[in-house]
């Protein structure tokens, strides 16, 4: 009874409309339809069930049905309930859009690092995060490839939530990339996300930032993940999953750009004397080091015979004076190769700058 009385507020004028329609057989007027839509919107905003509201309308119809009514009254009932449901659905769509806009604003503020951290922490629980703890962020995909409404995001999100529940996880997009924010002490969530995102994006690399504490920790981890993706592109790392903690040596190597430039030119510039230029020999060194200095694996990656690869390594030894197979020389050569990737040598102007 109490529930019915609560719904009666949204029945205002309904029986009067039915009585008028029954007396003349007319359709509802524009004002009558507008009043039904407005009441539908109010009912949706109040959180009432559309099913319960429709049942209440049908009960009121039965109670007010005149004995002499013909089929034309059914048209009036249909119009009234349809207009009411239209207003209800319109209010729901507006609420969804407002929620989506608020979520998008929160995500943009969270990952930009430009918003007040206290306000971010206060807003975060609404979206399933507790920013007082530590968080880590994983990023997948190419820029501008995915959005909040796309199938790929929904598929990855469903897989992660089916495995772990919500667990204070937020999966979203930023600048077209898939993003997963998870508690910093639950690395298994990000590992699972990385595997699913790599598959769903048809082989895109996934980068995982380190865990950091507090509201600012999310943007810190997010930027680490982005930097890892950028670094992988620059130095041609094709590992499916990159972890920022495994790449910390690279910023150290590039911190002194002048010293790195000098190392690259001193160690590798003799390769320019090769008949085909330094490119093939530099690729040989890259493949050799990436393969863990296993000649057979490096040869396979390059599409060469082991004998051809061994010849190239000997040629590098003769030109540079450093033997790639010698553990003492290997570190210097490998560091110089990493520097060449980072500085885009020999394709950049650094080649001319070093002469």
Describe this structure in words.
By secondary structure, the protein is an alpha+beta fold. It has 16 helices and six strands. The protein has helices at 2-8, 14-24, 30-45, 50-64, 72-112, 117-124, 151-164, 187-200, 215-235, 249-254, 257-268, 279-290, 295-302, 306-320, 327-342, 350-353, and strands at residues 134-140, 170-174, 177-183, 206-208, 212-213, 241-243. Strands 1, 2, 3, 4, 5 and 6 form a six-stranded mixed β-sheet that branches. A hairpin with a 2-residue loop joins β2 and β3 (177-183). The longest helix is centred in the N-terminal third of the chain and has 41 residues, at 72-112. It starts with a helix and ends with a helix. Mean pLDDT is 86; it is low at 351-355.
Draw up the topology in text.
Elements: H1 2-8, H2 14-24, H3 30-45, H4 50-64, H5 72-112, H6 117-124, E1 134-140, H7 151-164, E2 170-174, E3 177-183, H8 187-200, E4 206-208, E5 212-213, H9 215-235, E6 241-243, H10 249-254, H11 257-268, H12 279-290, H13 295-302, H14 306-320, H15 327-342, H16 350-353
Parallel strand pairs: 4-6
Antiparallel strand pairs: 1-3, 1-4, 1-5, 2-3
In short:
This protein is an alpha+beta fold and 355 residues long.
The best one-word shape is: elongated
Please trace the helix and strand order, writing H or E for each element.
HHHHHHEHEEHEEHEHHHHHHH
> How many β-strands, per DSSP?
6
Strand content: 5-15%
Q: Give the proportion of residues in helices.
A: 55-70%
Q: pLDDT below 50 for ≥5 consecutive residues: which ranges?
A: 351-355
What class, by secondary structure content? alpha+beta
Average of the residue pLDDT scores: 86
Q: Please summarize the sheet with the most strands.
A: 6 strands, mixed
* Rg, Cα atoms, Å: 33 Å
Count of helical segments?
Answer: 16
User: In angstroms, what separates the terminal alpha carbons?
Assistant: 92 Å
């Amino acid at each position: 009874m109490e529930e019915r009385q609560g719904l009666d507020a949204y029945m205002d004028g309904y029986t009067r409309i039915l009585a008028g329609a029954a007396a003349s057989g007319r359709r509802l007027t524009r004002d009558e339809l507008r009043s039904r839509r407005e009441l539908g919107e109010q009912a949706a905003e109040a959180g009432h069930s559309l099913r319960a509201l429709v049942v209440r309308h049908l009960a009121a119809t039965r109670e007010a049905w005149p004995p002499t009514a013909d089929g034309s009254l059914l048209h009036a009932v249909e119009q009234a309930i349809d207009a009411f449901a239209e207003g209800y659905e319109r209010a729901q769509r507006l609420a969804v859009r407002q929620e989506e806009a608020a979520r998008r604003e929160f995500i943009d503020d969270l990952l930009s690092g430009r918003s007040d951290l206290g306000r971010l922490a206060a807003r975060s629980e609404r979206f399933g995060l507790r920013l007082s703890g530590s968080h880590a962020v994983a990023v997948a995909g190419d820029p501008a490839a995915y959005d909040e409404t796309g199938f790929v995001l929904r598929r990855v999100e469903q897989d992660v939530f089916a495995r772990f529940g919500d667990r204070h996880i937020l999966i979203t997009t930023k600048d077209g990339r898939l993003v997963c924010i998870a508690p910093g002490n639950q690395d298994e969530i990000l590992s699972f996300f990385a595997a699913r995102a790599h598959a769903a994006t048809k082989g895109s690399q996934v980068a995982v930032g380190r865990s950091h504490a507090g509201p600012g920790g999310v943007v810190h981890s997010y930027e680490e993940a982005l930097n890892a993706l950028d670094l992988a592109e620059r130095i041609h790392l094709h590992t499916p999953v990159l972890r920022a903690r495994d790449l910390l040596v690279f910023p150290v190597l590039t911190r002194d750009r002048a010293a790195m430039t000098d190392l690259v030119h001193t160690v590798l510039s003799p390769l320019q004397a090769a008949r085909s230029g330094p490119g093939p020999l530099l690729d040989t060194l890259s493949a050799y080091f990436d393969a863990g200095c296993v000649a057979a694996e490096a040869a396979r990656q390059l599409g060469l015979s082991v004998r051809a690869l061994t010849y190239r390594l000997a040629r590098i030894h003769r030109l540079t004076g450093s033997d790639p197979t010698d553990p003492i020389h290997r570190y210097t050569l490998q560091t110089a190769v990493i520097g060449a990737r980072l500085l885009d040598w020999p394709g950049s102007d650094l080649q001319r700058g070093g002469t």
